[in-house]
Amino acid sequence: MTSVEIPKDGLEGLKQNWKIDATSGFLVFLLALPLSLGIAKASGFPAAMGVLTAMIGGMFVSIFAGSALTIKGPAAGLITICAGAVAELGALNIEGHTGVQLACGAIVVMAVIQIIFGFLKFGSLSDFFPPSAVHGMLAAIGLIIFSKQIHVLLGIDPATLKGLEPVELFEMIPHSFANADPRVALVGVISLLIIFGMPLLKGKLFKKIPAPMVVLAVTIPLAMVMDFRHTEPAFDLVSIGDFWGNISLNASFAAIGTGVFWKYVIMFLFINSLESLLTVKAVDGLDPYKRESNANKDLSAVGVGNALSGLLGGLPMISEVARSSANVNFGGRTRWANFFHGAFLLIAMLLFIPVIEMIPNSALAALLIAVGYRLASPKEFFKTYKIGAEQLVIFVITILVTIATDLLIGVGAGILIKFIFHILNGAPMKGLFRAKYEYSENESECIISVKDAAIFSNLIGFKKMFKRIKSGKKVTINFADARIIDHSFMEQLHHFEEEYQHSGGTVNIAGFEFFQPMSSHPLASRKMITGSPSKFEIKLSPRQIELKKFSETNDFAYYPQRVRNLLKYKDFPLQRGNKILFEENTLSKYIENGKLEVSDISLQEGAMQDRSETHITLLQLSETELIIPDFALEPEGLWSKLFEGVAGKDIDFDSHPAFSKKYYLRGENESAISTFFSESVIQFLENREEMHIECHKNRLLFYKKRDLLEPAEILYMCKFAEDFLVIALSKK
């Protein structure tokens, strides 16, 4: 927990991190196994081919990958394309060639193009697609998944659903409820209760255990009790068969001369590459070591994996966001975590096929319904609306057009609407695709003046400009001569500002006072204000009014504004695997031997559709005379005991068993930490309420819980920190 040392790569990285990466890989395997089976079945492929795809993505692609933390495997976002390819190519009735074989041929051709795209450095092209259109496409996929899997969950024969469009499947839902099989539906409903109920349980352990594995642990015995194996075909369990004997060259190119074949090559290429690149970029933002992936190398590596998977009868793979986010949360450090996840899948297919064949199909349907819900949840609509009403319009139109037509037309419609909004809001036609700016620099400073429009369609040009800036300078970006700045550019600016400040430079933004944001969201689009800028009054929320009164009573200076103080929490354990977005409601005052700063922070966990925000009130104690080793102290629980080998060895004190049982203490310099935690410090902590304490570079961070605190709780935390400081200083 000193300045973070970047883990080594290759065999050195394996030697250094094998224990941590193996643990993370095992936990990701528990998540990947049932999802891979379900995705394959929903895609029209044999269930085992989903596991084969994930095995290749883990054990093979990890060797060539350009990203450290992403997990490769089959993805729910490609279910609709795979199922469509199997159905439409199979309908060509090419003698001796099944729909799956022809779909595999399209996957192989797509993979070859994908490899070439990587070598041609097309990885940055994902920046052209606006987030609202991409998320709209994914939400549409989620709704399409739900439209079919709800029938499977209720025990309806999937064969009766073939050829039906999503709208027709939605219309059939009342009929399926009326004709549901009680036993199959019971398994499905229990599975849904587990999936959606586990996140509501308190405790770190429940948040770490993969819900899909709990589903299997419950539903496999349930299916055995109800004897699904010997009932009607509608109750069929997962079928693996002779997995190893059936692996062979299975791709067919007999349809390569048809338009349908190339339609699916293009759709596979577009969605597969786009999802992979977006996931790599999103997971980079969660990487505690702030490594930047090589998007082009990773694209080619995924292409190689897709080629091998398609040749052997498997599905297309991507860098999958849910499993990659889980890998970060489980402590994965290098690409070996992906390798281990694939290796554990291999072991499962060698030893546990009889157990896998006891999994009920309705349980897998429940897992896919949960994935579909995550892609198209009401939360996604609300998040999009918070960014701006125009973003919601793009999002909804993309969904509707995608469901009515297909994915490519849906995304195209979203992009078209985006262009229309930009033109109506003042973007000049000549600036739609060209990044216009003035750039000047010297040894210590860089000044950039942005012209016309800074939007998604010219973002690639601005990204190239950002890469020109050498680290360690004072960078000023002036937007006074621009007319419109969109959400895509604001996200990139946010990312650049964070990365550049982490590398030791500073970034100043000028000219935003001339713009009107489309919403209160900090990354909302902005358009130039016509006429003189009007004055505006900051309206305080009820919480801010309460904190303002608290600050006046307790002699704090109060700053309600939301700011991005990126370096304040750098390298604290709190931000490991998470991303601190903003802080606001800062209360600040000097005490006798230091400075107290209390803030509400917004902490992002996960990425893309798996992302969630947690709001925490914490206190930073700085400017003290103490020399303190870096450490992290947190209340001890079952999870910390089980996985202390990953997070760090628990430093115990034989003479203080109560303290050692109450707290999990870790840090690199065990000797210095043991010296700092003297008799008086330990007794102080034993006799107080539990508190999270972190130290980095002689600055202390305190927080009671991962939630906002009321004024009385803030007052207690401040008194706790002051008393802790007095005790620590008394032993100098």
How would you describe this protein?
There is one protein chain. The chain is of the alpha+beta class and 732 residues long. It folds into three domains: 321 residues, no CATH class; 100 residues, 2-Layer Sandwich (Transcription Regulator spoIIAA), CATH 3.30.750.24; 188 residues, no CATH class. Helices cover 52% and strands 14% of the residues. The strands form four sheets. Strands 11-12-13-14-18-17-15-16 form an eight-stranded antiparallel β-sheet. Helix 2 runs antiparallel to helix 13, helix 3 packs antiparallel against helix 12 and helix 12 runs parallel beside helix 14. The longest helix is centred in the N-terminal third of the chain and has 33 residues. It is globular, with a radius of gyration of 27 Å. About 1% of the residues have low confidence.
